[in-house]
Design goal:
This protein is α+β, with helices and mostly antiparallel strands and 169 residues long. Helix content is 29%, strand content 23%. The protein is built from four helices and seven strands, in the order ββαββααββαβ. The strands form three sheets. It has a three-stranded antiparallel beta sheet with strand order 6-5-7, with helices on one face. Strand 5 and strand 6 (145-149) form a beta hairpin. The chain starts with 20 loop residues before the first strand and ends with a strand.
Length: 169
């Protein structure tokens, strides 16, 4: 049974719930009909990844999100330009094989990971940058939400909420 607290294994952005769930054929059934009912080819994902972005497209070789933890094979490199705009690049791990790198690049390309993260994460990156540059504030992150607190509320929040300290200034 699917947990309703899971995040889409393709984009790692969208929370999957019963209203936006979709079952994708990782290898499209039009191109690979023999695999259309193979359980390992059926992935529970968000509708955006399956119906809007991927559709019947595939780039091979590709990482399987349930068997190859894609995020372990690369790092986001975040750069800020002179216009306060963030750009995201990918740096693959030096220990990756050529095959793993190709699978990762194809996965990132297929699901438009860089474009989507630049679009959806820019506001959070700007909030994070502002928080880091704000003196006499403590920075907390709870479930991806950034919160600034004055130092005098630090202990109160630590002992009376689910906030976990990441760092403080």
């Amino acid at each position: 049974m699917m947990s309703l607290n899971q995040v889409c294994p393709y984009c790692d952005i969208t929370k999957i719930n019963k209203d936006i769930v979709s079952v994708d054929h990782l290898l499209p059934k039009a191109s690979f009909p023999v695999l259309s009912i193979f359980p390992d080819n059926l992935i529970v994902v968000c509708k955006a990844c399956n119906e809007v972005i991927k559709g019947e497209t595939i780039y091979l070789p590709i990482a399987h999100p349930c068997y190859e933890e894609v995020s372990r094979h690369f790092t986001f490199v975040i750069k800020e330009n002179n216009n306060n705009k963030f750009t995201i690049e990918i740096a693959t791990n030096s220990k990756n094989s050529k095959l793993i790198n190709q699978k990762i690049y194809n996965f990132i390309k297929l699901f438009k990971i860089i474009d989507r993260y630049e679009k959806y994460m820019t506001a959070e990156l700007q909030d994070y940058r502002t928080a880091v540059r704000t003196p006499n504030k403590c920075v907390f992150i709870e479930l991806g939400q950034l919160t600034l607190l004055p130092p005098n509320l630090l202990l109160k929040r630590l002992f009376h909420s689910k906030f976990q300290p990441c760092f403080s200034y």
